[in-house]
Amino acid sequence: MRYSLWSLLGNAIGGHERWPRAWRSPEPKRFYDVVIVGGGGHGLATAYYLARNHGITDVAVLERGPIGLGNTGRNTTVVRSNYLCDDSAHLYEHALKLWENLSHELNFNTMFSQRGVVNLAFTRHELAEMERRAGAMRLNGIDCELLTVADLKRWIPILDTRDTARHPLLGGLVQRRGGNARHDAIAWGYARAANALGVDIIENCAVTGIRQHGGRVVGVDTSRGHIAAGRVGVAVAGHCSVVMGLAGVKLPIQSFPLQALVSEPVKPVLHTVVMAGHVHVYLSQSDKGELVIGAARDNYVSYAQRGSFHLIEEQLRALLGLFPVFSRLRMMRQWAGIVDCAPDASPIIGKTPVANLYVNCGWGTGGFKATPGSGWVFAHTIVNDEPHPLNRNFTLERFHTGRLVDEAAAAGVAH
Ligand code: FAD
Ligand code: PYC
User: Fold this and answer.
1) Which of 11, 100, 122, 284 has the greatest count of CB atoms below 10 A from its CB?
2) 296 CA distance to ligand 1 centroid (A)?
3) What percent of the chain has pLDDT over 90?
């Protein structure tokens, strides 16, 4: 929907009550060609690409709460494609290219800002890993530059680059096309665009059972009754073991809390994303001025969406070691989400042992950046009953064949 200047002014002055709904709120039908479980970015993007790329519009997205309040609304919005393995590089780069046109595609401002993502190296080992990764990225045609300490000092003047710093630096790696985006906009933009193509987005509808007949999925039980379906795709992130367990499918996934916090807003001081995996902190500055600060995951399995206090202490200790300038900055909010981690820190996107039941999970600490690409290949997988070339090495089979895609070193946050 396009707005005239007058309607925008009218809405601004007249209050939001008269704003049109961005997506319908339909009653669930008794049958859909495709049901997607999970109204986060991945589920909504999948529904959008089912309709947009494949003309499949008899689709429902079932979300147990309001859309976008899972990890999509809880993440720290880092977008990049600086991965080591070819398989991941191609998948995340496909996503990054979609990001570059997404506001236009969805007619929704995703606030995608290519401000660069800088990884810092503190040890010879990390530097060697970055050199290897930079070589692999160049071979895959992905932009990257290795940085010296002098480059880092120029790029990020408030970073403590002295030899006497608490965490002396050896160098870094930057992907300039990486950056941040607005997380809510991804859920809302895909929801509005999918709705416009005929997809039903059904909120407050928890899936409580997955029904099968003769080894084939036939529908789902929900808090709003039974819904029959030709095909079912599950994209519920940290809760994938629980939901796939309803169909008797076991996943090689463990779920952990991952937390983040934001400071009070301050004037612009940091124009890029900085990631310091070695000391377990990363940060960027939001357009509102808040410092958005993340840490390593809490290392115990849990479904409680809160993190432990000692991690916050360590994260802020590392922050101040790198940026003494923030010593009097006050923190405002802290939260956590539940992330779904596979043993090789790579996603699982593909068929399951139950016919016509598909799973998209295992994005762990890093799936926000993949949202458009994930939806694209998951829609293809569901329609064709076989993976897209970009996810053919990310299926469940790899845990039988042993052909893992080890991205532990390139994960933004260790997992
Ligand atoms: P979600 O957004 O969690 O959506 C899944 C939905 O499924 C939820 O809305 C949930 O309510 C719903 N659901 C669950 N069970 C049911 C059920 N039974 N019935 C119906 N619906 C159900 N990634 C990055 O790339 N960059 C980052 O900077 C980054 N930072 C992060 C920081 C934090 C603190 C966290 C927690 C994660 C971060 N991530 C990041 C990871 C990223 O957020 C996730 O990988 C991604 O958002 C997953 O999207 P999703 O749509 O699969 O999941
Ligand atoms: O995957 O880039 C990432 C990331 C950053 C913060 C959390 N995950």
Assistant:
1) 284
2) 16
3) 91
